[in-house]
Design a protein that fits this description.
Length: 389
């Protein structure tokens, strides 16, 4: 056990109990072969094997630890086999590495530690001459990636927004690596795609989706917004009007619609997904490596034209805004499983309020305890409770 943890399991919280059905049924489900040849996307086993039971126990351990005390930030270990929320397989297929987000219990959402592991995965693939193609995906068949973890946003950055610029820099490095790793990157879209997950797909060179995949931009529902990839690149896939509809209405499209709008290259049944991805790789194998690399250099011109210039503003916007009323209401309502009351905030604005300083600028000082920077409309000190003069 780490950090002085005892051998006793914590009492089941409601959140842990909600995961119980998932765990009870785990051993009855089909599991992907955990062999070295293909560690997470090959033939499925229908009878639980010792390897599958070991995998079940590993996932239970991860869930229990996460529920007992969430941890959002860590640095990747040297050995990718020890990574917590990313699986890296340098031999997924011929000349192909696979980088897979490994958080299926939370729809393959990511936290800061996940972002660092993804970056490390791309760095390893970039520096390995035996890897000439990269596949990006998520573990399981429910989700490719559903973006940032709301628990982290609410518990860390809603309380200390200024730290988001750091989170945002690691996030940006994933896109930098997708663009500048010098190798074609294919998004293997194996399920739900939301928020930052859609932004990953938009940045990859090509994307192949399972027919049950769904695409949505949920940011405006929780006081966030899609300015980390979608505002930059979705108009290159769709029209400006259609991309505006996707975000301003927080709309959802299915895999066939994503194909129609150019978000993905092909749609196939889930059982055929790996086969189709490998078919694309087989076609590229017979082509000039240098030609593919240099075409990607030119392709990146369109993506780079807007990426870093606007994301620098995006990091600043989140760092300045994440502590305000809208993200507070949106993120915590999601955690509390209730509907966000954004109309109440609209009414507050309509009556002259500012959601960033709802009780006025931080101008007051307590004469009793000398507490400073109290909101201008405060009647009592927030530190000692004395009535303000």
């Amino acid at each position: 056990m780490k950090n002085g943890e005892s051998g006793k399991l914590p009492k089941k919280s409601p959140e842990m109990k909600s995961s119980a059905n998932y765990l009870r049924n785990l051993s009855c489900q089909t599991f992907e072969d955990q062999t070295e040849e293909s560690s997470f996307t090959s033939e499925k086993l229908r009878i639980p094997s010792p390897a599958n039971l070991k995998y079940i126990w590993e996932r239970i351990t991860v869930i229990v630890i996460n529920m007992a005390k969430r941890e959002y930030d860590w640095y990747p270990t040297e050995n990718p086999k020890d990574w917590r929320t990313v699986k890296y397989d340098p031999k997924w297929y011929d000349y192909t590495a696979c980088i897979a987000i490994n958080n299926p219990e939370e729809m393959n959402s990511y936290v800061l530690g996940t972002l660092k592991e993804i970056v490390a995965g791309y760095e390893k693939a970039m520096g390995d001459d035996s890897v000439q193609f990269i596949v990006m995906t998520g573990i399981g068949d429910r989700a490719f990636c559903t973006g940032g973890n709301v628990n982290e946003y609410a518990e860390i950055y809603n309380k200390k927004p200024w730290k988001f610029w750091e989170w945002g820099e690691y996030y940006a490095r994933i896109f930098d690596m997708i663009m500048h790793c010098g190798k074609p990157v294919i998004a293997r879209v194996n399920g739900a795609v939301a928020g930052g997950g859609w932004e990953f797909v938009a940045c990859c060179d090509m994307a192949i989706a399972a027919d049950h995949a769904r695409f949505i931009s949920p940011g405006p529902r929780v006081g966030m917004t899609s300015i980390g990839g979608l505002s930059q690149w979705l108009p290159l896939h769709m029209s400006i009007k259609k991309s505006a509809e996707m975000v301003l209405l927080s709309s959802q499209i299915n895999a066939e619609e994503a194909l129609k709008y150019g978000v993905v290259n092909e749609v196939v049944p889930m059982a055929k997904l790996d086969e189709k991805v490998k078919e694309y790789i087989d076609k590229m194998k017979g082509l000039s490596p240098s030609s593919l690399w240099y075409y990607k250099v030119h392709l990146n011109w369109w993506r780079e034209l807007i990426w870093r210039l606007t994301w620098e503003h995006g990091k600043a916007w989140f760092a300045l805004n994440l502590g305000s009323m809208e993200p507070s209401e949106g993120l915590w309502s999601f955690k509390q499983k209730r509907k966000a009351e954004m109309e109440k905030i609209r009414d507050f604005i309509a009556k002259g309020g500012d959601p960033r300083v709802p009780y006025g600028p931080y101008l007051r000082k307590c004469g009793k305890c000398s507490a400073e920077y109290l909101p201008a409309s405060s009647k009592y000190c927030l530190s000692c409770g004395a009535k303000l003069e």
